Structures are given as structure tokens and as C-alpha cells.
Amino acid sequence: MKFNWQTKRLGEVCCISAGNSAPQKKEFFIDGKYPFFRTSDVGSTHIGKITNSNDRLNEKGIKGLKLFEKGTILLPKSGASTFLNHRVILGTDGYVSSHLATIKTDEKILNNNYLFYFLQEIKAQDLIQDHKYPSLNLPVIGGIEISYPESIPEQKRIVKILHEAFEKIEKAKENAEKNLQNAKELFESYLQSVFSNSKHEKKSLGTICKIIGGGTPSKAGSNFAKFYNGNILWATVRDMKNDIIMDTEHKITEDAVKKSSTNIIPKNNVVIASRVGLGKICFLKNDTAINQDLRGIIPLNLNNLSVNYLFWWFKSIAKIIIQNGSGATVHGVKLPFIKSLEISFPPLTEQKSIVAKLDALSAETKRLEAIYQQKLTDLEELKKSMLNKALSGKL
To answer: Are 144 and 127 spatial neighbours (Cβ–Cβ below 8 Å)?
Structure first.
């Protein structure tokens, strides 16, 4: 059976308002039992029903505030821009922040759950009038056009189909995410076992490697044009996005190298983050200068220590480096600590065997991660496609 569809503005079929200004006195939140929902609560929920809030008001705090009924849809209209696309339904009666729009339908005209699904299709960035100060206002929200079948039973049928399908999609996503996490944990477990169970002699890193720091050429005045228009790669933590640094955001001149504390680390060596981004390690594809947040680690004798083995060893102790970081503003580890790190030291042939196994397992782990990530993407696209068809009468 084909049903007639209506297109109306939200303001015509819904009661749209905003929540209450948050009480300013801390005493209103002492021993509170009435939930007060803020954008942060909505942001942490993303999509679904919300019953718990971080703040609760007491009897004094709720005086003069409007109570919103269970089933009211909350839509952030201001606050953190990352929350503006979050949509939730109140799972309980509660009080709501003025930064949230509240939407309640006339159930004789429009099913509330149908509207909830519809609002997931609406993107805040399409409604924002000033992207410098991203926010939504009530007239704009009220002007959103919604199409729906006149028949309430048909609306409920669509909601039922979407609800059942989305439950299965979410279950499939949970399984894919679990498999993705399992793949990562399996590799991490093997990596730890390789180095923690070694019975070979251990040596401090400072006795078998040269550890080189870096620096930042001056950017003041005319120095920026003089020092940063060169062809020498200059790496910072921002360039440590993958295991290999192929290129860098900035490139410096030979004069910059001469007149600063930066140093060029020869290609095919590794650099580690010793201040910002603790725990990161990368290979260098090319000769690369580094800033003060990085350290180049160069084996003194390649016949005794494989750079690839060194790379995987640093991967295995990433958490140890992070745990030993200090500093109030910049979290880092100092040179004496890096030099004191002890590395197990098997013969070179065994090092190469370990590297071959880790490289193979890493490649397989990345292959599995790509499969699971693609599955998650496909499931999300399926969800969007179903939602679009359902809300345009094509389901």
C-alpha cells in the first residue's frame, strides 16, 4: 500500500524550545537528585537514550526551572562544535541546559522516534550561519523541512524496521571492533613476549648507540624566509604519523643547520620522540634534520645491532617510556634516561630472524585491521543508506 506523504517545517509539527540557564550557585548541586543535562552529557552519549547526567540539582536548584518530559529529543545548538551533530532522547524526566534545543512532537501527527531518526540525517554544518562561531538558533531548527507519511502506523512500521536493522548493524560493528582490538592485542602480546623473555645479555643503549638531539632554527623576523625555504627535511613529532617518515611538513636550508642546534640524522636510522608524543618511533627514508623533541638513535656497529631490531625493541618499550615521562607542561624523558635503557642483545643472525617474524606478523595484523576498518565503514554506509531510503519513502 502506498501512503500519502507530507512535507512540513519542524516548527509546524513540533514544540521546539531551549533548556534552562544553569544555576550559578554550587549549593544548588549539593546532594542533588534531579538530573540536569548539559551538552557534555549529550556529547558523551552521541545517539540513543540518555538517563544519566554528570550534574544533579536539589530542591532549591530546580525552582523556576522547566521540567522536560521523558521522550523529549535533545539537540545541541551551541557549545563544543564536535557535539552539534549528536542527538539523544531523554530516557527520564529532567532539566536541560539552555545550550540544548528541546524538541517534542505532536504524537497524533508525527511519531517521536520517526523524528529522532530523521534528525540523524540533519547535519549541523548545513544549518550553521556563522562558521567562525558555530551554533544553531531555534528559528533555523524550526525551519528544517521533514517529510513523513500521514499514517502514524506507517511511521511506526518504518521506525520498527530501522530499529531492528540498526540493532543488527550495531551488533556487527561491535564484533568488527572487537576483532580489530583482538588483532592489535595479539600482535602487542607477541611483541612483548619476544623482548621480555630474552635470555641474552643486556646492554645499556648509551653503550651501543649514538644518541643525537635536535633543535629549531629561528623563525623570527627575516630568519623564517632565510631558514625555512630549503630542501633539507626537518622533522617534528607532527611528521611521525606512520612508521616511516617519507617527507616533512617543513624543509630548512643549509644555513639553518649551521646556525641552529638541529642535526641531520642519516637515512635508514630511527628517531624517537623524547618530549611531545612520547613512545613514538619512526624510520627515516631520507637524511632528515630533527627538532628538539626528537632524538636520532644510531647504532655504533651495524654488525652487532640491526636498526630494524632496534625499531621493534623501541616499539615494545613504548609504555615504559611514556610512564617515565615528566614535566608539568611538556611531558618528556631526558638523555640520561634514554642512555640507561637496557636492550637484550642476541647475535645479529637471531636479531634478523626476530625482525622477519615481527615484520610478517605486523603485515598480517595491518591486513586484518584494514579488513575490519572497511567492514566498519561499509556498515556505517549501509546504515546511512537505509536511513535515507526509509525517510524518503523508498524503503
So the answer is: yes
Question: What pairs with residue 265 in β-bridges?
Answer: 288
Using DSSP, state whether 357 is helix, strand or coil.
helix
Residue 240 Cα to chain centre, angstroms: 17
| Other C-beta atoms lying within 10 Å of the C-beta of residue 319 | 12
Instruction: Enumerate residues 6+ apart whose C-beta is below 8 A from 288.
Output: 232, 233, 234, 235, 245, 248, 264, 265, 267, 271
Phi, psi of 86 (to 5 degrees): -85, 140
How far is it, in rounded angstroms, from Cα 298 to Cα 308? 11
Q: What is the per-residue pLDDT across 279-305, written as a single tens digit (0 to 9) for each?
A: 999 999 999 999 999 999 999 999 999
Question: What is the grid cell recorded at 176?
Answer: 568488527
The residue ranges of DSSP E strands in 87-155, in sequence order, are 87-90, 95-96, 100-105, 145-149
In the chain, the domains with their CATH numbers are: 5-150 (3.90.220.20), 151-200+346-395 (1.10.287), 201-344 (3.90.220.20)
Say if residue 2's pLDDT is above 60.
Answer: no
Query: pTM higher than 0.90, yes or no?
Result: no
